[in-house]
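From the thread on structure requests for the teaching lab: each student submitted one protein with a one-line request. Submission from student K.M.:

"Model Vacuolar protein sorting/targeting protein 10 from Thelohanellus kitauei, tokens only."
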Amino acid sequence: MFYFHDILYILLFKNEYNLCLYTLNEHDHMVEIICNLSLKYQYDRKSPIMINPHIPGVIYANLQINDNNTITVISFDEGKHFLPIELEGNYSGCFDTSCCVEFYLELMIESKEDHFPEKWMAIFQGVYHCNGSSRYHNFMTFNGGKTWRILDRIIQKFFVLNHGGLVFAIEQSSNIIWYSYDEGNNWYDDIRGDFKDVFPLESHNNLGISALNVNRAYNIHSFNKYVFSSVISILCLMTDRTCHNDDYEPWYIPRFYENCFRGEEAFYWKIKRSAMCFDNRTVLIPTFEPCQCIRDGFQWYSN
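Reply posted by the TA:
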């Protein structure tokens, strides 16, 4: 059993080989959400289910589709409908019965920032299965899970600053620190060294990282600071200025029926991809608006 967003979730076996996710309705009766959950990771820390800690109603599930393969699906409406993971770019048209994505899900998260660093961001390690082959990747979304990007490099750790406006990726075993200003559209790799550890730095008008660099030949340790407040990126120059109102745009939480869920839609003010400024907000508060009532969007309605 686990508890998120005032909802109790229960994992139970329907029979010996069929693991299901349940919840309780307002009468404390057990309600089935989804079954045929993968049994692949039942003996380690991974899980067939993961709940988005920022956004109520968003559920990730790993389903067992045959003896060998697992597919990850996502629900934006508290489990009433589940959709396969949709990839962007060259992978966007590849999904049929022979191609799928499998995320490594964790039930207990020590830090929300590991997988959900911002309201609209999520990062997972996983496998892309297609035509009999399986390849390990990192997967990243900047729109709440609606679409995902594959990172072909093997990334050991991510650092997300400026509410997602600046992302660092530490490439495993290559001593390269990649960074992106535009939600992963472009990555830059001009930070190189023999890094022992990397720390994020984030304060007013100061975005960057510090890295402990090791020169093994001379047994020298150095502490380097990389600040990116004045670096050319894409066609813009990031200046030492605080974001203004026109640097933001509304980001609506995606739902199965467009943005409407239980009679309302919610959005956050998100920094524009093209805005090169410092976002000094410490707390992000959603705005709620009524939307057209859809009967199937309510928890109490059952087909």
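TA comment: Residues 230-238 have pLDDT under 50 and may be disordered. DSSP finds one helix and 24 strands in the chain.
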